[in-house]
């Protein structure tokens, strides 16, 4: 057993768990960490996607009561049916566009200048969104969302196909701009992440199954566990944070990180490759 490899897996798991649900793009951070750790071959790329399921398990655990109640009431309760339907409606656009354009985006847009640009622009979009008064929000609970609201948030999630955009950032800030409160947008982003990231993880493992073997199981298990633990802490912290704080600090962080991407690519410290 390669203890160095397991240590790298643990670090990558922590990076994934801490960045997946914050509006700062887990992809950019995983690329940076992977390159610095020399953990960036094709198998590592599959690993990065697969350990997202650990982060999703954390969300399922935090919202287990709500998820269990929804599933139990789904056959008879209209409210539960509307909630599940909204998640499904929001999930579909990213699936369609991801399958249609995913390879082309990875081949042509995964460049340092593009990643840096989306980081910086995303930061300014967050600053703009946070200037809007929360009193202007028309939807304060996820149960009040209509299918059109869910569709628009799902379309916003598609922006995360662009490298450096951030899935959580696109859904949360997109939801806020579309009239959701900060709390409702954040919670719906969590729920939408469940089918989105599980689907991406399963698809990646199936597509790249030829690269994997039973010997890789410890590496994936360690990454999964550390991703779960760090995401659980992050989600619980974020839910407390948004009750009294704005996303403004994350906006400035994105802008600064975008500059880091440009400098690290220009100096050759990090090889920003898909």
Content-based structural category? mainly alpha
| Biggest sheet record | none
Overall 3D form: globular
Radius of gyration, taken over Cα atoms and rounded to an integer in Å: 18 Å
Counted up, domains total 1
Q: State the share of residues found in helices, binned by percent.
A: over 70%
Mean pLDDT: 91
What does this structure look like?
This protein is an all-alpha fold and 274 residues long. It has one domain (3-267). It is 74% helix and 0% strand. Helix 4 (52-62) runs antiparallel to helix 10. The model has no long low-confidence stretch (mean pLDDT 91).
Task: Provide a short characterization of the protein structure.
This protein has helices spanning about 5-20, 25-35, 40-50, 50-60, 65-75, 80-110, 110-130, 145-155, 165-175, 180-205, 215-240, 250-265. It is mostly helical and about 270 residues long. The radius of gyration is 18 Å and the shape is globular.
Which secondary structure elements does this structure contain, and how are they paired or packed?
Elements: H1 3-19, H2 26-36, H3 42-50, H4 52-62, H5 64-73, H6 78-108, H7 112-131, H8 147-157, H9 167-177, H10 182-207, H11 217-241, H12 248-267
Helix pairs in contact: 1-2, 1-11, 3-10, 4-10, 4-11, 5-6, 6-8, 6-10, 7-9, 7-12, 8-9, 9-10
Question: Which key phrases capture this entry?
Answer:
single chain; 274 residues; mainly alpha; 12 helices; 74% helix
